[in-house]
Amino acid sequence: MMSTVIVFTALVGVVYATTLMSATDLKQSRAVMDEVRVEHLAESGLELGIHFLNDAAKKTSVQDPIAGLNQLFVTAGADSLTVIDGQPLTVGNAQVGAVSVRLTRESVSADTIRVTIEATGYVPDAPQNLAPNQRLHAWNAVAMSAEYSTEPSSVFDNGYFINNWGWFYGNTIYCNGNARSNGQFDAAGYQPYVGGQPVYDGASWDGVSATLTGYRDDNEDGLLDGGDGGVFSGWDIVAAQNVRGPGGLAKNQHDFQDQVPMPNLTDLTLYEDLATAQGSSIEVAGVTQCDGICGDDVGESKNLYLEGTILSPIVLDGPVVVQGDVIISGYVTGQGSIFAGGNVYVPKSIVYVDPPNTERPADNTQAETEQWLSDNWNKDFLGLFANENIVVGDHTHNTWRHYVGNWMGSSMNKSEEDAGEDGIPNTFDGRDGIHGTSDDDVLEDDGVFTAEYYSAQDALLGLIPTGYSVGDVIPGSGEDIDGDGQYDNTTTLADFAISAPLDPSYWEGNMPLTGIARYQDIASMYAARLDGIFYTNHAFTYVVFGSTDAVINGAVISRNEAIVYGTPNANINYDARLLGGGNGFAGNLLPRVLGSPVFERWRQLDEDPNSSVAHP
C-alpha cells in the first residue's frame, strides 16, 4: 500500500511538472509568435509610410513634387508628423495587431527632400487602444530613410521618343541615336536606320575634358563596347527585321519595356524659380528680349517673338519661361532653354552660330563619346519645351494642313484622353490580342474620362496645389495623359492656331514694329535644319520639302507626331550632351520628373518613437 501511494504521488508530480512545462512552452511559443508578428507589422508600417509619401508626391507633381512633400510638414507646423496612429491590421475578420507610423523631415532643398519613416507594430493592439484589463504583449519599432529627388526624365536618352504608337515609315529615315515609343513601334514595309546610343548614369566636366560614368549594358552581352542602345518599345516592334543599323540587331531591339513617364509642364512655377535663381535671359543685338520670365510683369505680354540673323543672333543664357506662345527662328547662340506655357512655332530653320564640330561622335564607344563631349561642351545648345504643341514650317499652307490633318486624325496617332489604364491607344485587347481576357484594357474607348480626385483629407494635409480644389482631377492620374487635370479630345488643326494677332502689342521680343501681315510672310515649307531639343506632351508637327536633307540635331520627344518630309533623307542626330541625366551637361536645362526614391536599409529601434507609453 505504501508503494502504491509513493507511485501515485510520483505520477501526480510528473503530470504536474508536465502540465507546468506545457503551459510554459505554450507561453514561450506564443511570445515567439508575437515577436515575429510585431516584426512583420512594423515592416508593413514602413510600406504604408512609403505608400503615403509616394501618393503625396503624385498629388503635388503638377507643380513641384519636392515642394509638395515638404508641404506636409509646413501644414503640420513641425518636422515630424504621425500619419498612421494605431491603425488596426486585420486578416479576414480577425485583428492581428496594429501599426503606427511617423514621418520626420531631415532635410530639404529645391530638388531633394530626405524623410525618415518610423513604424511600430503592436500585439494585440496599440497602447492607446487597449482596454483597461488588456496589456501589450509585444511591440517592435523600425526606421528607414527615404530620399526623393527630381531629375531630367529618361525620355531624353533618345533621339526620337513618342508617348504613343511610334512609326518609321520611310526607307530614308536615319535616327542616329535611340528610338523609343511607349506604345507599339512600327517599321511596316520600310527599312529605316537606327544607330543606337549607349546610355550613362552620369557625365562630368573638369573645365577641360568630359567623363562619362555608369555605362548601361542594355543588351546584357557583358560588353561595354558602345554596341548598346537601339529600338525600345512599350509594346511589340512590328517589322523589326526591316530595321537597318545597330538598332536592327535582335539584341538591340527591346520590346514590352516599362513605360517612361513624360514631364508635366502644366505648371511652370518650378522653372520660373529656376530662371530667377540663375538670372537667365535672352538677348538680340544687345537688347534683353526676356529677363527670365515673360509675362510676369504688369503690362508685359505673355508671348515672345524671336528672330535671329547671323549678325544679330538670338543669345541664350540659361532657362527662361514664356507664359504664352513662342515664335522662334533663325540663328541662335549660347546655351539655354525656353519653357512655353502655350505653343512653340518654328516658322523657319533654327541654326546654331557655333554648333558642335561634328553632329555625332566618330563612333559610339565611350572613349569617342567623351572626346566629342570634351570638344563640344561649350558649343551652342537650345531646348524648346512646349506645354502645348510644337509647330514647324508654314502651318497656314494648304499642303502642310493636308498632311498634318490626316496624320492627326489617324487611328494610329490617337490623342483623345480615353486611352485606358496604360494611356496608350489601340491596346484594348491586351498583349495577347484576344478580346475578353484578363489583360484587356477595358477603360479604353469607354467614353468615360477616368481619373482620381482630390479629397478633403488631401486638403487637410496641404496636398492640393494652388488653383485646384477638393473634387478636382489629380493631374496626371488615370487617363489624364498630359497632366493638366482636364479631358482633352483629339488634337486638330485648330489647336495650332496662333492665340494672338501678329502685332508687337501682343508679343515681347523683336517682332517688326509694323507687325506681320500674314504668318506665311515669315514661314517656309523648306525649314530643313533644326538645331535643338524639341519637347511637347502634345503634338510635334513638321512638314518640309526641298533638295537638301531634313536634319534635326538634338532630339524630338512628343506625345503625338506628324513629321512629313519631301526631302532626300530625314535625319535625327542625337545630341550626346543629353547623356548623364541630372549629372550631365543639360541637367539644369531640361524638364524634370520625380526620380525613384532611394531607401536606406531599415534598422531596429530600441525605443518606440510612436508612443510615450513605456512598453514591457
How would you explain this protein's 3D organization?
By secondary structure, this protein is of the alpha/beta class. It has a domain at 32-151 and 597-605. It contains six helices and 34 strands. A hairpin with a 2-residue loop joins strand 1 (80-91) and strand 2 (94-108). Helix 1 (2-59) crosses helix 2. The protein is globular.
Structural descriptors:
single chain, alpha/beta, seven-stranded antiparallel beta sheet, 34 strands
Short structural description:
With 616 residues, this protein is α/β, with parallel strands linked by helices.
Number of distinct helices: 6
Rounded radius of gyration (Å): 30 Å
Structural class estimated from helices and strands: alpha/beta
What summary fits the major beta sheet? 22 strands, mixed
Task: Provide mean pLDDT, rounded.
Answer: 91
| Termini Cα gap | 51 Å
User: Would you count the extended β strands for me?
Assistant: 34
Classify the helix fraction into a percent range. Answer: 10-25%
Q: What sort of overall outline do the alpha carbons produce when their principal axes are compared?
A: globular
Low-confidence stretches: 1-26
> In percent terms, what proportion of residues is strand?
25-35%
Topology, pairings included?
Elements: H1 2-59, H2 65-76, E1 80-91, E2 94-108, E3 112-123, E4 138-152, E5 160-162, E6 166-167, E7 173-176, E8 179-181, E9 185-186, E10 193-194, E11 200-205, E12 210-215, E13 231-233, E14 237-238, E15 253-254, H3 269-278, E16 281-284, E17 287-290, E18 293-294, E19 304-308, E20 314-322, E21 326-340, E22 344-346, E23 350-352, H4 366-376, E24 381-386, E25 390-392, H5 398-408, H6 456-461, E26 508-509, E27 529-536, E28 539-545, E29 550-558, E30 560-566, E31 570-574, E32 592-594, E33 598-599, E34 603-605
Parallel strand pairs: 5-8, 5-29, 6-9, 7-10, 7-31, 8-13, 9-14, 13-15, 18-20, 19-21, 19-26, 20-21, 21-22, 21-23, 21-24, 22-25, 24-27, 25-28, 27-29, 28-30, 29-31
Antiparallel strand pairs: 1-2, 2-3, 3-4, 4-32, 4-33, 4-34, 11-12, 16-17, 16-20
